[in-house]
């Protein structure tokens, strides 16, 4: 068989699942990278051309096929990998990369099963259902593209007869366990901040966006899931190498979680709507961190998503990265 046929027909999913633990999430299988570890930076999906994979940390931001996988994993050249996959030589097994187990009480299995079914349904609806156009229109108006929807498994549905974007939260170590589902309502009532958000019953919100972190040196803790997604989207697009996580609209009692995650980064930045709030969270991390507040431009305060919509977020992040003494 030629290379194209092998890449198109080889069951890379079965091979990769022997190397690392993968969890299905919509159209993707996601888990720790078999090459560099991490939390959940390895992505695998099926395409008309066969299974394709990439790693957000050690990859080149491109999807690759089965031959590239074997070349990388077994240190083979192209010819050797081709023969290994197309001949009688079987790829040798290797020890599975095991992500760390969460050290926190999470929702029970019954709740998990219910929420997984819900997330799979609404994420598919967001992309495919004609009735989900209000959700698609809303996200596109916030400059969040389809790739972002898929990375975060965003969905669209109705809650108490109100249209809403479904935003899943995952546990702190893997992309297996949903800890919370947040609803961002998009109807006229949502103009009032008191009627804009709601958590699904039984949710345990811990930290948003860790499954999408690529293990860069710089971390931004920020208020709001949409702001975190805006930074991740911009960082990926412009190669800024920033991870963005959100503690939602308030950090609450998650101080130890924030401390634990912050230890993995060389530089941490806290971005909140006001300087006082940034400084409070900064002081709770038990390590050095920069405090940043949303900039005011022509008398208007801009959060990360507002800057994204204005085309200013990439420039703002670059300037932030240059300044080690953020006011």
Radius of gyration: 21 Å
Number of discrete helical segments: 12
Q: Looking at CATH, which topology of the largest domain would you report?
A: Rossmann fold
Strand order of the largest sheet: 1-2-3-4
The helix-strand sequence is: HHEEEEHHHHHEEEEEHEHEHEEEHH
Binned, the helix content reads 25-40%
Extract low-pLDDT stretches.
96-102
The count of β-strands is 14
Termini separation: 61 Å
Biggest sheet, open or closed, and with what strands and sense?
A: 4 strands, antiparallel
Mean pLDDT: 84
Which outline best applies? globular
Structural class: alpha+beta
Q: Give the domain tally.
A: 3
Residue fraction in strands: 15-25%
Give me the CATH architecture of the largest domain, please: 3-Layer(aba) Sandwich
| CATH classification, class level of the largest domain | Alpha Beta
What does this structure look like?
It contains 12 helices and 14 strands. It has 327 residues and is of the alpha+beta class. It folds into 3 domains: 3-86, DNA Primase, Chain A, CATH 3.90.580; 109-199, Alpha-Beta Complex (DNA primase DNAg catalytic core, N-terminal domain); 210-322, Rossmann fold (3-Layer(aba) Sandwich), CATH 3.40.50. The strands form 4 sheets. Strands 1-2-3-4 form a 4-stranded antiparallel beta sheet. It has a 4-stranded antiparallel beta sheet with strand order 5-6-7-8, sandwiched between helices. Helix 3 crosses helix 4. The longest helix is centred in the middle third of the chain and has 20 residues, at 109-128. It starts with a helix and ends in a 5-residue tail after the last helix.
């Amino acid at each position: 068989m030629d290379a194209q046929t092998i890449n198109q027909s080889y069951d890379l999913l079965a091979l990769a699942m022997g190397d690392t633990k993968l969890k299905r999430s919509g159209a993707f299988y996601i888990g720790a990278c078999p090459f560099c570890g991490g939390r959940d930076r390895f992505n695998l999906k099926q395409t008309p051309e066969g299974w394709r994979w990439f790693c957000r940390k050690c990859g080149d931001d491109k999807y690759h096929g089965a031959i590239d996988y074997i070349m990388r994993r077994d240190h083979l050249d192209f010819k050797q990998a081709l023969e290994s996959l197309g001949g009688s030589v079987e790829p040798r097994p290797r020890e599975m990369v095991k992500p760390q187990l969460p050290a926190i009480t999470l929702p029970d299995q019954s709740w998990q099963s219910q929420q997984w079914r819900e997330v799979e349904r609404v994420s598919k609806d967001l992309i495919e259902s004609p009735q989900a156009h209000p959700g698609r229109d809303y996200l596109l108006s916030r400059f969040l593209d389809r790739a972002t929807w898929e990375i975060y498994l965003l969905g669209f549905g109705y809650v108490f007869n109100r249209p809403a974007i479904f935003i899943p939260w995952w546990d702190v170590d893997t992309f297996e366990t949903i800890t919370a589902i947040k609803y961002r309502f998009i109807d006229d009532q949502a103009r009032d901040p008191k009627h804009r958000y709601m958590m699904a019953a039984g949710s345990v919100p811990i930290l948003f966006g860790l499954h999408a972190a690529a293990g860069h040196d710089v971390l931004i803790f920020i208020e709001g899931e949409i702001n975190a997604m805006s930074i991740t989207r911009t960082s990926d697009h412009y190669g800024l190498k920033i991870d963005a996580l959100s503690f939602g609209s308030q950090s609450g009692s998650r101080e130890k979680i924030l401390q634990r995650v912050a230890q993995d980064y060389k530089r941490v930045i806290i971005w909140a709507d006001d300087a006082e709030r940034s400084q409070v969270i900064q002081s709770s991390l038990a390590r050095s961190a920069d405090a940043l507040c949303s900039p005011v431009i022509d008398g208007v305060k801009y959060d990360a998503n507002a800057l994204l919509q204005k085309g200013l977020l990439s420039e703002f992040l670059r300037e932030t990265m240059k300044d080690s003494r953020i006011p």
